[in-house]
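Predict structure. Chain length: 506.
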Amino acid sequence: MHALVSRAAYPATPFITTLHGMSNPGANETALVGWQGEANIRGTYEILRSCIGTIVLLCWSSVCPNVPPLGGGAWSKIQGKLSLFLLAILMPEAVLWVAVGQLHRAWLDKNAFKARSSSGWGLRECFFVNMGGLFIQFLGPDSSEASTAHQRPFPVNCTQLRYLADNGFLELPRIKPEEIEMRNKSNGLARTITIGQVLWFTISTLARIAQGLPITTLELTTLSLVLIMVFSAAAWWRKPMDISHPMIIQSNVCLSTVLENMMDPPNPRSRNFGATPLAFYDRQEWVLSKAWASYTCILRTLCYGTQSPTTGEGESNSVFPNTFPSIELLQVALTLEALGGLLTQVYSCVLLSAWNAYFPTPTESLLWRVSTVVGVSYGFLGCAIAVLDRYGACISQCYHNIWRSLRKAASGGTDTEPQIPLIEGSTTGRKKRGSRLDWLRRFSNLSPNHDPNFDMKLRVWVPATLLCMIYSFARVFIIIEDFISLRRQPSSTYEVVNWAQYSILL
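Prediction complete.
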């Protein structure tokens, strides 16, 4: 009994081995333990680090800007990549359309070179030329006042290059692969790290969903961004990255001679607009490119107070931009439009899947639902606009024929146009309504020098602008909500997947 009381009053000290291998029963130290796993939780900082790191790595290493302006300085070299990087974060589906459009153009050019038996022109070479990697300088004598401007080098794309070669203005150059690789700044290590980070984030997020653990809206947004940017990077896989110095070829022909031959019939005014002196030859604007040009002009005016000048061959105060813009919405084949539309809808539906997710307030939940529905609707409307732009004339003709047949059947077989009575004062009323809309029409074409190729009808520009504004507000809310919703989350959000904490990748 005395022994039990003594042990209770004076508990035994753990047996601890000292550095000299001797026991020290009186040492005031904690017990040594073996291998210990991490706590089965994660912190808010880990969520932010994982998502932001994945977004920055993926967007920065995936975007491929065009060649910067010749002699533009350090800022011009990073401006194109930075603009694509920010666009990928704010509107990743637009980057997907840019990449798919450039891939489609390069693929068509590759087939065109193959048809004319031009060896050595693969997809990579066509990408290189279309991104502004090949400049041409016309050295021929020119008696015009703009002879000095005509002798400045400027970029040409593959279509313009084939025209010059087919008409004897120059010999088609052979671009060696090593010349492209010498200028290519593609970083294999950075891409490898990015692929590893993206795979790890995707697997971890899907594992949480499989085990019934909730994820934050920031993780869901990052997952949807991964989906879009992976396909964008795949479309740009053969495009050289971060080329800063183009190749320059020379021709002894004068530029005015080339322009006269390219115009059929001659119309000097029609070549007053475009990114380069030869841009009018293969220029094809469509509804999305026109809308994009209008909105970028508005943004430039708001941010810089001015608009970037375009080529005005007939304008004395204009300059020849010596680069192709990195952001161009090119029209592609119908199959690619369908594929791009499908990917855009999947991207929007990933965000829509958080319909019943937890939000700190009911207002945030409602705004999230509205914003994601706007994203899904915007995708459907974009597809409808693309179809109408491609087949609008055919649809209008079919509608006219059907209406004409119905009217003919209703009138007993006579095809007579209905007589519309002229209402006195109607012409004046239309003039008044037209004058009230004059201020609005100015916004439908804000391009420098009022390029007629960018003219949009008000019935197209007004609803398209309203839709873009609504979509922009929805995107801004989603990005803001991704961060402010972290202030209060269910405790299970911070539990980790059991197998993930011992992964060697972590």
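Summary: Residues 319 and 444 are 24 Å apart (CA to CA).
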